Amino acid sequence: MSEQKRKRILSGMQPSGKLHLGNYFGALKNWVDLQDDFECFFFIADWHALSSLYEDPRRIKEFSFEVAVDWLSAGLDPEKCTLFLQSKIPEHAELHLILSMMVPVPWLERNPTYKEKQDEIKKVDMSTYGFLGYPVLQTADIVLYRADFVPVGIDQAPHLELSREIVRRFHHLYKKNVFIEPGAKISDIPKLNGLDGRKMSKSYDNAIFLSDNEKEVAKKVKQMLTDPARARRDDPGDPEVCNLYPFHKIYSPQSMQEEVAEGCRTAKIGCGDCKNMLTQTMLESMGPIMERRSEISKKPKEVEEIIAEGTKRAQLVATSTLDRVKKAMKLK
User: Fold this and answer.
1) Does any domain span residue 205?
2) Total domain count, the chain
3) Which of 92, 130, 144, 254 is the most buried (most CB within 10 A)?
4) What is d(CA 80, CA 38) in angstroms, rounded to the nearest whole number?
């Protein structure tokens, strides 16, 4: 597939903390696969991170570096995709401002994520102008690079529709098609809960991080909640309601999955046995990423150079698009 004919993908991650397995299976693993078939732009969304870290933004720079290390460790190849830092390209903020002037507030208030995040994050006041308008900045991120697709899970696809509405409103107002209406690149995202059975999240302090070492992973697996019906060792359980089993479906071979499921239902194995089996298969699978991460983290200058070079490439596209925006609006 030639470079000219490849469709363009755009996506980003907030550096609001260390990346965890939910981030990996929810997005990063899919990105690694996409980079061979699409022209991919992946950015560290440090402006977005301010929505929850505005009271103490000092760690955003540190988290941004850690995100870059995780990306490279997981297999993103700077020779195949463009990796860049959002805040180093001022066109993101400028296009966000322009679009915000034409987006009706009710469009933003109906966004389901607005309420969900406020319920999830209790330590920070999320009732801010910036957080309400984050979908506008998100739209600017996408359309600035004229992305054909944004990789999302099926439950996130409706969120992308707001970006499409904003694009249509711009084109209607200024009678010129500047942007591409981004389509959803649907991926099958496995559902992984955190140690306590809730959604895996940094905010809940229940995550297994890509930066965890073998001892930390083993310790966290031991802490994971299991089927509450198995109060005693000889109580039978149901693997489908157990917090461990989705991890077995990802990490363990089919034979082990069947052994665990049958052993759980008949109480032939205990939850401790199940956790030991899972720890073994998880560490075997995570080993290569752990090894690469250990090496890459020792070369901070190389990581910074990769992001700097990607930012230069992204800047060229962003500048061109914003120029077209201003011409369409007769601002230039």
Assistant:
1) no
2) 2
3) 144
4) 9
Same domain, 63 and 89: yes
Residues annotated as part of the active site: 117, 199, 202
Co-location of 222 and 318 in the same domain: no
**Which residue in the block uniquely carries the two structure tokens 């910036």?**
130
Q: Count Cβ atoms within 10 A of the Cβ of residue 237 and give its class: 0-12 exposed, 13-18 middle, 19 or more buried.
A: buried
d(CA 319, CA 89): 9
Return the SS3 of 231: coil
Q: Using alpha carbons, list the distances in angstroms from residue 307 to 52, 84, 149, 153.
A: 23, 5, 22, 26
pLDDT band at 2 (very low <50, low <70, confident <90, very high): very low
Domain presence at residue 141: yes
**Pairwise CA distance, residues 12 & 28, whole Å:** 10
Neighbours of 292 (CB within 10 A): 15
Residue 41 lies in a domain: yes
Q: Residue 309 belongs to a domain with what CATH number?
A: 3.40.50.620
153-181, pLDDT tens digit by residue? 777 777 899 999 999 999 999 999 999 99
170 and 115 housed in the same domain:
yes
Query: Which domain covers residue 304, as residue numbers?
Result: 8-193+300-328
Report the distance separating Cα 76 and Cα 73, nearest Å: 7
Q: What is the CA radius of gyration of the chain?
A: 22
Q: Model-level pTM?
A: 0.92
Task: Assess contact for 146 and 179: CB atoms under 8 A.
Answer: yes
Q: Which helix (H) or strand (E) holds 246?
A: helix 245-251
